[in-house]
């Protein structure tokens, strides 16, 4: 497998991590964005005129306070498709152990990581760089490992065996985020006026993809991005970031807003499946990732969705004569097929699903 991967990819595969470690002083041409797409790097915690929602999730378990939290979630989903959560129930130890495992993985020699490299978007475990390093017109300053994570017992044996702690530490974090996701789906369903158990069985049988990202220090961060503007295919994405770097699009003012780093908080982002299920009441959040001159940033994006081949469509209760179905149905597999042969920077996948009445 190693020799095959090297022969197929070796001529043009250079990871962002390898470039940083080589001591480059300038961003290679293939990473330089057109001037109109380059990031305006904002200072730490600068959100200027906007207050991003932070929700204390522990209050969901108090019957008297739960309605207030549901309302806060509704306002955040309508306003941004995004919120941060504190007191979410995942222990600091589990988070730190997962960050340690990821750090150890990305610090492995290149040859070790190349055992998992692939440009096949359907593979359940793959290491890579940029988005699709074989077809990207502009490359993005990140390395990643992605792996299916639910049910854990089905996939964990395919995960990296090196570093030795990876399966155990990352597995605990993956299981904890799966539990958290179920709580969030219940709350978001309630906020839409649906039964809290709407799609709960499908979600339990669904998929979880853990995208573990490494954004190395970049010599010219004003010229490059870690990830381009996009929305996630998922119902929800639960994101852990080790430092600031995420930006979301404020659709009201059509500008980019830096998401502050809050210690021990997690980020919740609505994905395309949620936009379709809500019939456009909630929108998937468009986001991108900036890079830093001095700091290596890690993030874990835990993407939760329905089973691979299951189609999602607007909830019947949210469709009527005044608000007809605004989207066609789609599955996780449909999304993978799309990104395998299309440039997400040119057209978002969800735009292919929208009907004329939207």
UniProtKB/TrEMBL annotation:
Domain of life the protein comes from: Eukaryota
Residue stretches making up the Fe2OG dioxygenase domain: 206-306
UniProt keyword terms in alphabetical order: Cytoplasm, Iron, Metal-binding, Nucleus, Oxidoreductase
Subcellular location: Cytoplasm; Nucleus
A molecular function (GO) term: oxidoreductase activity
Annotated Gene Ontology cellular component terms: cytoplasm; nucleus
Function of the protein: Involved in the regulation of shoot development and salicylic acid (SA) homeostasis.
Similarity remark: Belongs to the iron/ascorbate-dependent oxidoreductase family.
Protein name: Fe2OG dioxygenase domain-containing protein
Organism name: Microthlaspi erraticum
């Amino acid at each position: 497998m190693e020799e095959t991967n090297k022969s197929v990819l070796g001529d043009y595969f250079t990871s962002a991590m390898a470039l940083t470690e080589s001591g480059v002083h300038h961003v290679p041409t293939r990473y330089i964005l057109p001037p109109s797409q380059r990031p305006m790097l904002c200072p730490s915690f600068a959100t200027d005129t906007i207050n991003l929602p932070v929700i204390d999730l522990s209050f969901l378990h108090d019957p008297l306070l739960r309605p207030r939290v549901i309302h806060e979630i509704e306002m955040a989903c309508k306003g941004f498709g995004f919120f941060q959560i504190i007191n979410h129930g995942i222990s600091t130890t589990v988070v730190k152990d997962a960050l340690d495992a990821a750090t150890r993985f990305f610090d492995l020699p290149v040859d070790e990581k190349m055992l998992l490299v692939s440009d096949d978007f359907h593979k359940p475990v793959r290491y890579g760089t940029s988005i699709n390093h074989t077809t990207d017109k502009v490359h993005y300053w990140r390395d990643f490992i992605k792996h299916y994570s639910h049910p854990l017992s089905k996939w964990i044996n395919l995960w990296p065996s090196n570093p030795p702690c990876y399966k155990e530490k990352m597995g605990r974090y993956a299981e904890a985020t799966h539990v958290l996701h179920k709580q969030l789906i219940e709350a978001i369903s309630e906020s839409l006026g649906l039964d809290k158990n709407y799609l709960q069985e499908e979600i339990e049988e669904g998929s979880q993809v853990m995208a573990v990202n490494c954004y190395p220090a970049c010599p010219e961060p004003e010229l490059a991005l870690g990830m381009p503007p996009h929305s996630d295919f998922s119902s929800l994405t639960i994101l852990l970031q080790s430092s600031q770097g995420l930006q979301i699009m404020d659709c009201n003012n059509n500008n980019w807003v830096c998401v502050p780093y809050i210690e021990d908080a997690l980020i919740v982002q609505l994905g395309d499946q949620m936009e379709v299920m809500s019939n456009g009441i909630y929108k998937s959040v468009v986001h991108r990732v900036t890079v830093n001159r001095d700091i290596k940033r890690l993030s874990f994006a835990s993407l939760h969705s329905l089973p691979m081949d299951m189609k999602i469509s607007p909830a019947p209760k949210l469709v009527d004569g005044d608000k007809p179905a605004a989207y066609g149905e789609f599955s996780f597999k449909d999304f993978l097929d799309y990104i395998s042969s299309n440039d997400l920077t040119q057209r978002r996948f969800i735009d292919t699903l929208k009907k004329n009445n939207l």
